[in-house]
Design goal:
Chain A: Pathway: tRNA modification; 5-methoxycarbonylmethyl-2-thiouridine-tRNA biosynthesis. The structure holds 2 protein chains of 2 kinds. By secondary structure, chain A is an alpha/beta fold. Chain A has 10 helices and 9 strands. In chain A, helix 5 packs parallel to helix 7. In chain B, strand 13 and strand 14 form a beta hairpin. The chains are: A alpha/beta, B alpha/beta. The interface between A and B is medium-sized, with 32 and 32 residues.
Chain lengths: 320, 387
C-alpha cells in the first residue's frame, strides 16, 4: 500500500498542526505522551519543549524523574535560558529545608502557576505525569491540571485576557491501570501514543475536540540529536510483511443445489404479483364509507389468478 | 334622574367590584366569606404548569426530555421528581447533546434551570444549546430530512407483506410549540434573547471550592456536599417544594449535572476500584433523589460509566436512579465500518424505567434501538438488523 504524494504532505501538515503547533488544537490544550519501555518519549517531549521555546513562549518544566542536568542536556544555551525549571528530583520531600525548595511540592507549584499574573502563552511540561500520578491522588491531580489549563477562561481582574496555556505530560503506559489512564485520557485534548516497527518510531495521535468527532492519525517520525523533529513516511514497503494475501471474494451462491437467481421473465412475474392481503379499491371504499342500505355482513371476494369461477362443475379442472 | 343616580351609584360600586375582581384576577363575582388572597386553585380549577402533562397510564405529571422519540420510549416523558441518568458514550459527544436538549426544552417551556458542571462554565453550556424548531419552518425542514433519507432506498425497497407496514414508527411528526415536546436544530444556536428571558442558576465547581481549603474527610466528597446544598437552597428559596404558598404560578425546576463521577468532581471512582470515597457518589444520588421527590423538579445526570472500574458499582448507581439510558457510539470501534450499522451512529440502550406508583412499568416492546444524528435532528429508530 503506497501513500500518494498529496496524502503524505497532508499528513505532514496535519502533524505540524496537531503536535508542533499546539495552539491550533483548540484554546485549551492538554497533551499527554504515552510511551513504553521500547519507545522512549522523553526525547519527543524535549523536542516539543524546544519548539515552544523557539516560538517565544514561556516554558516551565516540572522535573521529577530525571535531574536538571540530564534534562537540559542537548539544548543549546539560548533555549536553556528560556526554560524555567522547577526541580523536584533532587529533594522531593523537602528534607534539606533550604529556602530554594518550593513549598507544597509539585502540587503547590502547579497551583502557583494557576495564579500567574503575566500574560502571554505558556507551556508547562510535566516530566513525568506518571510520577505525579503515583505520588498524588488522581482526582486532585486531575482537578489541578484542569484548573491550570483552563485559566484563560477566567480573565484577570482588569479584564485583560490571559494567554493560552499548553500542558504537556509524559506518561509511562505500563505503570498505570486502566482507571487512571482512562481518567487522564478523558481530560487530555490530544493523546500521542508512541510505538513503531523495525527501528522507526511512530506516533498515533488522537485529537478530541470538544464537540466534534475525534480524529486519529499515525505519523512516523524521528528525533534528531539537537531535538528537532523530523517527520517521515512509513517504513519501506518491501520490508513490511503482507498481512493478508489477496483473496478473491467468494461468491456464496456459486455451488448450491438450488437456484437462487431469477431470470428476467421470472423477475417480471414477481413484480407484477399482487400480495394476498392488499385491499382492492372496492373493499377499501366499502370499509371507508359504510352504506346504510347494505346488509351487516358483506363478503368481499377477490378472485386469485388460479381460481375457478364456474359454479356448475367443481371438478372441471380435474383431468379424469 | 333617580335612575341615573342609582345607575351612577351602582356603576360606582360595580366599578369597585370590577377593580377588586381584576386585582384577584378570577371572576367578577365575589364570594362571601373568608378567602385566601392570591391563590387561584380553589374550586375545581386544575393547576396546569406549562410544559407538563399527566401520563395516560397513571396520571403522573410528566415533562419532556427534549427528544420526542425518547419521550415515547420512556412512556410519555420523564416524571416530575425523578432522575434521568445517561451513561455517556466514549467521547461524550451524543450524551452532551441529550443534556443540551433537556435544558433547551426547559428554556422553551419557561422552566427554571439549574446547571452544574465541573469542567465547563454553565454560561458557556447555555450558549451552546440548540435552537428550537418552531411550527412555520420546522415542518418543511423535517420533511426535507425525511425525504433525503428515504429517496435513495425507495428503488431497492423490498415488496414485503403487509404486516411490516403496520409496525409503529418511533419518529413522530413535529408538534406545535404550545404542546409537549419540541424539535431542535442541532446545527444552530439558541437565540440569545431566549436565554436572557429564562431564569437559570449555575454551579461551576472550581468557583465554589477554593483549593487551599482544608477539608475534613467525611463520607461525601466536598464537591458533592456543596452541590447538594446549592440545590437545596434553590429549591427552598424559589418555593419548588411548596414552602412558599404565596407564589401564584408553579413552575418546574430542571436540574442538569454534567459528568458526575469524573475526577474533576473530586471523586476517584473512575480512577481506582476501591477508593476511599467509593460510597460518596451513591450517597449523593440517594440524597438527590430525596430532594427531587419532595419538589417539583426533574434532573438529568450524565455519567462517564465507561471509566468506572468497579462494575458492581454501576449496578448500584442504576438502582439509585430512576430512568437509565445508555449510549454507545460507534466512533472508533469496528462497528463504524461495518456495513450492517451504516445507518446509525450508535446504539441506545434503555436500561431501566421506573415503576412509579405502579406495579409494572411502561416498557416498549422493542429493545434494539439505534440512534442517528442527522443533519439537524437526533433520531432514534428501531434497529432493523434485529428484525
Amino acid at each position: 500500500m503506497t501513500l500518494s504524494e498529496g496524502a503524505r504532505l497532508e499528513m505532514l501538515d496535519s502533524l505540524h498542526w496537531g503536535v508542533l503547533d499546539l495552539a491550533k488544537c483548540g484554546d485549551r490544550d492538554g497533551l499527554s505522551i504515552r510511551h513504553s519501555v521500547e519507545w522512549e518519549g522523553r526525547s519527543l517531549l524535549k523536542a516539543l519543549v524546544k519548539k515552544s521555546a523557539l516560538c517565544g513562549e514561556q516554558v516551565h518544566i516540572l522535573g521529577c524523574e530525571v535531574s536538571e542536568e540530564e534534562f537540559r542536556e542537548g539544548f543549546d544555551s539560548d533555549i536553556n535560558n528560556r526554560l524555567v525549571y522547577h526541580d523536584f528530583f533532587r529533594d522531593p520531600l523537602n528534607w534539606s529545608e533550604t529556602g530554594e525548595a518550593l513549598p507544597g511540592g509539585p502540587l503547590g507549584a502547579l497551583r502557583a502557576m494557576c495564579k500567574r499574573t503575566d500574560l502571554g502563552p505558556v507551556t508547562i511540561a510535566l516530566d513525568s505525569l506518571s510520577w505525579l500520578l503515583l505520588h498524588l491522588p488522581c482526582a486532585t491531580l486531575c482537578q489541578t491540571l484542569h484548573a491550570v489549563s483552563h485559566q484563560d477562561s477566567c480573565p484577570l481582574g482588569d479584564g485583560s485576557p490571559v494567554g493560552k496555556v499548553h500542558v504537556l505530560g509524559l506518561l509511562h503506559e505500563e505503570l498505570h491501570g486502566p482507571g487512571p489512564m482512562g481518567a487522564l485520557s478523558s481530560l487530555a485534548q490530544t493523546e500521542v501514543t508512541l510505538g513503531g516497527t523495525m527501528g522507526q518510531a511512530s506516533a498515533r495521535i488522537l485529537c478530541r475536540r470538544p464537540r466534534q468527532h475525534p480524529t486519529d492519525q499515525t505519523q512516523w517520525f524521528s528525533i534528531l540529536p539537537d531535538f528537532s523533529l523530523d517527520l517521515q513516511a512509513g517504513p519501506s514497503i518491501e520490508s513490511q510483511p503482507h498481512s493478508d494475501p489477496h483473496i478473491p471474494p467468494v461468491d456464496p451462491t456459486a455451488h448450491l443445489t438450488f437456484n437462487l437467481h431469477l431470470s428476467k421473465k421470472e423477475r417480471e412475474a414477481r413484480d407484477s404479483l399482487t400480495l394476498p392481503f392488499q385491499f382492492s379499491s372496492e373493499k377499501q371504499e366499502a370499509l371507508l364509507r359504510p352504506r346504510p342500505s347494505q346488509a351487516t355482513s358483506h363478503i368481499f371476494y377477490e378472485p386469485d389468478a388460479y381460481d375457478d369461477l364456474d359454479q356448475e362443475d367443481p371438478d372441471d379442472d380435474l383431468d379424469v | 334622574m333617580a335612575a341615573v343616580a342609582t345607575c351612577g351609584g351602582d356603576a360606582g360600586s360595580a366599578g369597585s367590584a370590577v377593580a377588586t375582581a381584576s386585582k384577584s384576577n378570577v371572576t367578577s363575582f365575589q364570594r362571601r366569606g373568608p378567602r385566601v388572597s392570591g391563590t387561584n386553585d380553589s374550586g375545581p380549577r386544575l393547576v396546569s404548569i406549562t410544559g407538563t402533562r399527566p401520563s395516560v397510564r397513571n396520571g403522573q405529571l410528566l415533562v419532556s426530555t427534549g427528544l420526542p422519540a425518547l419521550d415515547q420510549l420512556l412512556g410519555g416523558g420523564l416524571a416530575v421528581g425523578t432522575v434521568l441518568l445517561i451513561e455517556e458514550d466514549k467521547y461524550n459527544i451524543y450524551s452532551s447533546l441529550l443534556f443540551k436538549y433537556f435544558l433547551a426544552e426547559g428554556i422553551v417551556n419557561g422552566h427554571t434551570l439549574l446547571v452544574a458542571s465541573a469542567n465547563e462554565d454553565p454560561a458557556n453550556i447555555l450558549q451552546e444549546l440548540p435552537a428550537p424548531l418552531l411550527d412555520d419552518n420546522c415542518k418543511k425542514e423535517f420533511d426535507e430530512d425525511v425525504y433525503n433519507h428515504k429517496t435513495p432506498e425507495s428503488n431497492i425497497k423490498m415488496k414485503i407483506a403487509w404486516r411490516y407496514q403496520l409496525l409503529p414508527k418511533m419518529e413522530i411528526g413535529p408538534v406545535s410549540s404550545s404542546r409537549f415536546g419540541h424539535y431542535y436544530d442541532a446545527s444552530k444556536r439558541i437565540p440569545q434573547e431566549l436565554i436572557e428571558a429564562s431564569k437559570w442558576h449555575g454551579f461551576f465547581l472550581p468557583e465554589k471550592i477554593s483549593s487551599t481549603l482544608k477539608v475534613e474527610p467525611c463520607s461525601l466528597t466536598h464537591g458533592y456536599i456543596k452541590l447538594l446544598q446549592f440545590i437545596q437552597n434553590i429549591i427552598c428559596e424559589e418555593g419548588f417544594d411548596g414552602s412558599n404558598p404565596q407564589k401564584k404560578q408553579k413552575n418546574i425546576l430542571r436540574i442538569g449535572i454534567q459528568n458526575l463521577g469524573s475526577p474533576l468532581w473530586g471523586d476517584d471512582i473512575c480512577c481506582t476500584e476501591n477508593g476511599d470515597s467509593s460510597h460518596s457518589l451513591t450517597k449523593f444520588l440517594y440524597v438527590l433523589r430525596g430532594l427531587l421527590r419532595t419538589s417539583l423538579s426533574a434532573c438529568i445526570i450524565t455519567m462517564p460509566t465507561h471509566l468506572i472500574q468497579n462494575k458492581a458499582f454501576i449496578a448500584h448507581v442504576t438502582n439509585l436512579s430512576d430512568v437509565v439510558v445508555g449510549l454507545e457510539s460507534f466512533i472508533g470501534s469496528e462497528r463504524e465500518t461495518n456495513p450492517l450499522y451504516k445507518d446509525y451512529h450508535g446504539l441506545i440502550h434503555i436500561r431501566q424505567i421506573p415503576r412509579l406508583n405502579n406495579l409494572f412499568c411502561d416498557e416498549s416492546d422493542v429493545k434494539d434501538l439505534g440512534f442517528k444524528l442527522k443533519r439537524k435532528l437526533f433520531t432514534i429508530e428501531v434497529d432493523s438488523i434485529s428484525l
